[in-house]
């Protein structure tokens, strides 16, 4: 039996007696200084959120990306994106509270931070970039998870019938299965309740990245292993034409940019941290742990994967099909990918849910369908606050992302497009501009100049990567054959 609750509010607002109650020690245990629910996030949970967000499907395409760039440019580009992402993340962490990074007012979302520090039309630009990217990542993860689920079926087919058999498998049923799981998990009320899911997902990401690395090392160590690698990657006239080399290089840069995409949820992750020690200090440490850990895995997976497959590296080295045996280990790795992406989907979808639900609550505050919770007794779980609007809207969102994934099931092209489109505005431009504004940095000072140069250089890189990804996506759409696994 559902029992109706009173209309919810995001903030604690009340009478003088309410404020006196807020001073009570028991009340303080449950609420922060701004009247919101007490945050419990720590360095460990924030690091887990970051690793879950960063080590994702991007790691699977790094061997292919290194193959396009070669032994020199490949590691250089990986290192450059790593350092830039870490540096701009520290700038963004400083802007979480404003005007002072420690004692200022909390900003709960990326858009709130932009509103507090920049204002004007840049708020709209930020919203378009951030939420467009978050929706795109939800679509990309649906594609990737379905490919990994299909790869389990294909792996068993190859093991049973031989490696020369064409084991075609449709991704569409697996997209539906993945969407069904996400519909259930999407009913988790907010980001603050996701710590356990992120920790599980982070463990899974380490597991499948380690399996891929181990299999690559084993392949390199095989007797008679002989693949062609070069300092400059795929060779013009041998592997690709001159035009293809240029476009593939741009696409590879986009794939690497996507591999480091987590700035879109950095503020939301920081908003889960306890207020003591200061959130900016903890977030800087978490960013260093998260980015350095993932970079180590990326370099190992990308370089060892390239050494294992050479210039013929598949777009996804666990589903490409780069490995056939031991088939059970390939299956386990792909199951780990799916479990990880089930959690990672929520890390990126929850900010979208929160933004839209907050907007609707503010727009129609008297609408009971939107603002009223109901207590439902769930077996084995206990009491659960169910909101009918949340149920309907979140279910519709998951279904929509699954439908778009079915229309564009192209792994490398899609992740490259997302990475190229979001890297400059969200990872570089806004953090730099907000830091300059908050610190009141003088124009044309030394620091101001080199920050601007960094921003413009990253814009150029993002534009060429975006061009390459659009070209690759157009080619994939042109040659697409439905009902065959895309990889």
TrEMBL record:
Major subcellular site: membrane
Transmembrane segments: 46-66, 72-96, 131-152, 172-189, 196-218, 249-267, 288-308, 328-348, 391-411, 417-437, 449-474
Short name of one Pfam family: Aa_trans
Domain Amino acid transporter transmembrane: 40-473
GO function terms (MF aspect): symporter activity
GO annotation, cellular component aspect: plasma membrane
PANTHER family (alphabetical): OS05G0424000 PROTEIN-RELATED (PTHR48017)
Name of this chain's protein: Amino acid transporter
Species, as recorded: Macleaya cordata
Phylogenetic lineage: Eukaryota, Viridiplantae, Streptophyta, Embryophyta, Tracheophyta
């Amino acid at each position: 039996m559902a029992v109706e609750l009173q209309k919810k509010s995001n903030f604690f607002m009340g009478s003088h007696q309410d404020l006196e109650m807020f001073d009570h020690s028991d009340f303080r245990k449950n609420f922060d200084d701004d009247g919101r629910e007490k945050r419990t996030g720590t360095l460990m949970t924030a690091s887990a959120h970051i690793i879950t967000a960063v080590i994702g499907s991007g790691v699977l395409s790094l061997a292919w990306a290194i193959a396009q760039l070669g032994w020199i440019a490949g590691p250089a580009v990986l290192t450059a994106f790593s350092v830039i992402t870490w540096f701009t993340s520290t700038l963004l962490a400083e802007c979480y509270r404003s005007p002072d990074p420690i004692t200022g007012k909390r900003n709960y979302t990326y858009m709130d931070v932009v509103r507090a520090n920049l204002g004007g039309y840049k708020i709209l630009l930020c919203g378009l970039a951030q939420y467009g990217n978050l929706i795109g990542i939800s679509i990309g993860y649906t594609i990737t998870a379905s490919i990994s689920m299909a790869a389990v079926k294909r792996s068993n087919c190859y093991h049973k019938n031989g490696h020369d058999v064409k084991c075609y498998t449709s991704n569409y049923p697996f997209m539906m299965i993945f969407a069904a799981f996400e519909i259930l998990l999407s009913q988790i009320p907010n980001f603050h309740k996701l710590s356990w899911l992120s920790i599980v997902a982070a463990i899974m990401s380490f597991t499948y990245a380690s399996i891929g690395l181990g299999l690559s090392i084993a392949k390199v160590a095989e007797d008679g292993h002989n693949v062609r690698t070069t300092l400059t990657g795929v060779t013009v006239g041998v592997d690709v034409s001159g035009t293809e080399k240029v476009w593939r290089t741009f696409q590879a840069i986009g794939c690497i940019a996507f591999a480091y995409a987590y700035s879109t949820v950095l503020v939301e992750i920081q908003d889960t941290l306890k207020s003591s020690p200061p959130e900016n200090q903890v977030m800087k440490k978490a960013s260093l742990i998260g980015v350095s850990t993932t970079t180590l895995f990326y370099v190992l997976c990308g370089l060892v994967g390239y050494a294992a497959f050479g210039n013929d590296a598949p777009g996804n080295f666990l589903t490409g099909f780069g490995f056939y045996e031991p088939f059970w280990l390939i299956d386990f790795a792909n199951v780990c990918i799916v479990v990880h992406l089930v959690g990672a989907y929520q890390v990126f979808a929850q900010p979208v849910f929160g933004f839209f639900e907050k907007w609707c609550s503010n727009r129609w505050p008297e609408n009971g369908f939107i603002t009223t919770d109901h207590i439902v007794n769930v077996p084995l779980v206990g009491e659960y606050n169910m909101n009918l609007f949340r149920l309907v809207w979140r279910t519709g969102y998951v279904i929509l992302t699954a439908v778009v994934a079915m229309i564009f099931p192209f792994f490398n092209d899609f992740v490259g497009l997302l990475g190229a489109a979001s890297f400059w505005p969200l990872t570089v431009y806004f953090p730099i501009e907000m830091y300059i504004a908050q610190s009141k940095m003088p124009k044309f000072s030394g620091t101001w100049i080199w920050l601007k140069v960094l921003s413009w250089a990253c814009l150029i890189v993002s534009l060429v990567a975006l061009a390459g990804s659009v070209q690759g996506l157009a080619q994939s759409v042109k040659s697409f054959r439905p009902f065959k696994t895309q990889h």
